[in-house]
Amino acid sequence: MANRNSKVSSTRALQVRVIHIVKVRITVDRSACIACGVAPNQCPEVFVLGDDNGKTRIVEKYSEETSDETSSGTVPSDLHDCAKEAADLCPVQAITLQEIE
Length: 101
Fold this sequence. Notes:
Order of helices and strands: HEHEEEEHE
CATH topology: Alpha-Beta Plaits
Helix content: 25-40%
Shape: globular
Mean pLDDT: 88
Distance between the termini: 37 Å
CATH architecture: 2-Layer Sandwich
Low-confidence stretches: none
Largest sheet: 4 strands, antiparallel
């Protein structure tokens, strides 16, 4: 009996932890960026090398703020995996993602 109740409790706990990501806030630390092009190559829907200083920035469609130091924007959840892969591949970890519910 204890095992059955444990399974039910685990299942309920798992169901509570399901989060629906609506958008993803992305920030590129352009001061740390080495302009290697990994992010734009991995996820061109979200990232591009900037014309201003050659460093990665958020594409115009999703950009909210861009300076020499940072680029930030919000993308829809369907681009989460693409952006996450690009962030994971960044050799200097200059890209951060924040999931917005």
